Amino acid sequence: KAGVTQTPRYLIKTRGQQVTLSCSPISGHRSVSWYQQTPGQGLQFLFEYFSETQRNKGNFPGRFSGRQFSNSRSEMNVSTLELGDSALYLCASSLDATLNYGYTFGSGTRLTVV
Amino acid sequence: GDSVTQMEGPVTLSEEAFLTINCTYTATGYPSLFWYVQYPGEGLQLLLKATKADDKGSNKGFEATYRKETTSFHLEKGSVQVSDSAVYFCALSAANTGNQFYFGTGTSLTVIP
Question: Which of B42, B100, B103, B107 would best serve as a mutation to test chain A binding (most A beta carbons within 10 A)?
Answer without folding.
Answer: B100
